[in-house]
Amino acid sequence: MTALLEVTNLEAWYGESQALHGVDLKVGEGEMITILGRNGVGKTTTLRTIMGMIRNRKGSIRLAGKDMLSVPLHKTAKHGIGFVPEERGIFATLTVEENLMLPPVVAAGGMDLDEIYELFPNLLERRTSPGTKLSGGEQQMLAMARILRTGIKVLLLDEPTEGLAPVIVQRIGEVLQKLKGRGMTVVLVEQNFRFAAKITDRFYLMDHGQMVGDFPVSDLPNRMGELNKVLGV
Amino acid sequence: MTMIFGVPIQALLGQLLVGLINGSFYAMLSLGLAVIFGLLRVINFAHGAQYMLGAFVAYLGLQYLGINFWAALVITPLVVALFGAIIERLLLSRLYDLDPLYGLLFTFGLALVIEGTFRWLYGAAGQPYSVPPQLAGGTNLGFMFLPNYRAFVVVVSLVGCIATWALIEKTRLGSYLRAATENPTLVQAFGINVPVLLTLTYALGAGLAGFTGVLAAPIYQVSPLMGTNLIIVVFAVVVVGGMGSIMGAIVTGYMLGIAEGLTKVFYPEASNIVIFVIMAIVLLIRPAGLFGKDA
């Protein structure tokens, strides 16, 4: 398997304090991986560091063979990578449609507005409302839809199901299935491994700022002991 | 003579017009301040100096290059905007990671340097700048005499305010600006060059001040200290309107200009302080300003 995204020995710091202690990660083209771990072990930091939002970093991030460490933040997206933050990052002073249209298209092959509205009919209905007037589930849909327009190939998705009702979680699962069908490569951070198990190809276990395990989803039943230890459940 | 509230209607309308003119300048200047503060979080103390610079560029252009008022109205804002862009790129942008106080102190120092330079070159006395011939004279409305140039200033500043508002609230570029105000890091991660947006925004604010300076040149005289006198009132306007609120800056600018004008009719002694009295009352009742969002 050739890796589309390959992270080697990645370290990152918030000011003086080190948050990542040598993260290794490989994601093949069209693959979906899920990073599991307790709160505060560095899952979100891993995504933010790959995206370049945390600049105090060392190690190697290669996207389709290209070294990303030297790429400035505003040029990172052009290499075909997008980030949906846990807090969703919907802008209150922008309407739903302005939120949708905000990220510039970086490559052909993204969804157009019609496709997006077909996939997320709620957004069409509410396209002139301020972005933050949407429900939590709708905001999550908007945050994902917004990135899908841009034609990126690698999606970094941070806890999309957090705090949402089961029916919305199921809907997000369907959307992710659809993305996989389109060949999207996804790095998912999730606390809810039962949700992730339905859609992911592989799991990474994270603890203390590094990966401590890596196994395919089919291996999950054999790994429950390890999983419980890392998740502390 | 027709009287309203015990005041001759001519006096009332005359002061209302003066208030509207002053309000136009307040609105245009506080709008620029609000645009800059909204995105850069910098309180631009150099705004008055940039307004003065606009008037001087128009004056010097006419004296040495024969650039008439109409050409100056287009060229001057671009010159002042370019000056603003250079200042932002070379100096101001180095202060973003520091406490906002540094930006305030820097622009304050910059204002002193600019004004000091012009005072040294041209003295403190005002230079006359005549009303363009097309707008000389006035129109008799029957109940009052309306100087054409002043009517022109009111209309142009209104158009300028609405155009700026529309640029920020209704265009793609404006949505970038609004989004970057909320969460610059995420906007940058989307692939938008936020540092360039910051430069453009500061240039836009400075250009607006320069444009206002050209409009003001034929009404007030062109003098190195014309900005200092005005900017204190404009800061009061921004505080009343609410920091960073675009519409708030515009509406409050006109409102306070008119309030000042009317005070001149009914109680002239208070006209110089009425804006600051209103500011104090607003700060007590609504610290975030009339149009500001409570943070």
What does this structure look like?
- Chain A: One of its GO terms (molecular function) is ATP binding.
- Chain A: Keywords: Amino-acid transport, ATP-binding, Nucleotide-binding, Transport.
- The complex is a heterodimer of chains A (233) and B (295).
- By secondary structure, chain A is of the alpha/beta class.
- Chain A has one domain: Rossmann fold (3-Layer(aba) Sandwich).
- Helices cover 31% and strands 28% of the residues of chain A.
- Chain A has helices spanning 43-51, 73-76, 96-101, 113-119, 121-125, 136-148, 166-181, 193-197, 224-231; strands spanning 3-14, 17-28, 32-36, 57-63, 66-67, 81-84, 154-158, 185-189, 202-207, 210-216.
- In chain A, the strands form 2 sheets. Chain A has a 6-stranded mixed β-sheet, with helices on both faces. In chain A, strands 2-1-4-5 form a 4-stranded antiparallel β-sheet, with helices on one face.
- The longest helix of chain A is centred in the last third of the chain and has 16 residues, at 166-181.
- With 295 residues, chain B is mainly alpha-helical.
- Chain B has one domain (16-119, 144-285).
- Chain B is built from 11 helices and 4 strands.
- Chain B has helices spanning 9-40, 47-65, 69-90, 100-122, 148-170, 172-182, 184-189, 194-216, 226-241, 246-266, 274-285, and strands spanning 3-4, 7-8, 138-140, 145-147.
- In chain B, the strands form 2 sheets. Chain B has a two-stranded antiparallel ribbon. Chain B has a two-stranded antiparallel ribbon with strand order 3-4.
- In chain B, strand 1 (3-4) and strand 2 form a beta hairpin.
- The longest helix of chain B has 32 residues, at 9-40.
- The radius of gyration of chain B is 19 Å and the shape is globular.
- The model of chain B has no long low-confidence stretch (mean pLDDT 90).
- Chain A binds chain B through residues 51-53, 73-78, 82-83, 85, 89, 91-94, 98, 101-104, 106, 150, and chain B through 172, 175-176, 178-179, 181-183, 185-195.
